[in-house]
Amino acid sequence: MKHSLEIQPLSSWINTDGKPLIISGPCSAETEDQLVSTAHLLANTGKVHVLRAGIWKPRTRPGEFEGIGSIGLEWLKRAKEETGLLTATEVATAQHVKEAIDAGVDILWIGARSTANPFTVQEIADAIKASGKDIPVIVKNPVNPDLSLWIGALERVNGAGIKKIAAIHRGFSSYEKTAFRNEPMWDLAIQLKTIAPELPIINDPSHICGNRELIPYIAQKAMDMDMQGFIIESHIDPSVAWTDAKQQVTPAALAELLDNLSYRQPES
Ligand code: PEP
Ligand code: MN
């Protein structure tokens, strides 16, 4: 498969001193205190570059918590001011893009359900172009194991003039019930790397595993495949998290997990 991606290296938009890029924070922003306290603990580890938090949550079925909404952008801004961490959130509509950019969010991500829908991705890409802002965009793999949809979404973002792009490997839905919430299907990440070697790939062990216990195993495998970083969900008290409680880790557990990983330092 060919692609038409023009890619700026990760190091041109974020300095990680040759270490893996670490994005972490709660699945969902729940309260101002939860988000800001988690951000302080993450920043204090000295290992995290970007604070993530879902403000608008895509839920598989209605009737559950669907995100705190726009007010959470103010909390992200406060967390950034107090900790110096960059911020990232998921956008799924043109309105989300506008509000996130206006609120000073540093990095946008496209979620797995959105990547599976070219109309949605195009709407997001058009809104980014309309903003005139050269904001980095990271694109999760689609829920289904379809490499073309993943690359197609990256191409649509690229078409909006964004070259600061990366892919997130978050695993794929499968009918078979296995130990994983989303099957890693590593071969799809390998194929993406073969097709677009310059494209940074960031691993999301939280959504692959669906539970905390398996995260170290998946994270080490991602490092062995030379992936360039992680997005890992963390919460000041995972046991009471409003979404994805089983897979979130405390900031202290995150630091320990990262300390135990071995990875190759890129040649300088
Ligand atoms: C998330 O990052 O919390 C999320 C909803 O992920 P995904 O799009 O991978 O399901
Ligand atoms: Mn989540």
UniProtKB/TrEMBL annotation:
Keywords (alphabetical) are: Transferase
Q: What is its EC number?
A: 5.4.99.5
Keyword Transferase found: yes
Give yes or no: UniProt keyword Transferase.
yes
Q: What is the protein's given name?
A: chorismate mutase
Summarize which stretch of the complete protein this chain spans.
1 to 268 of 370
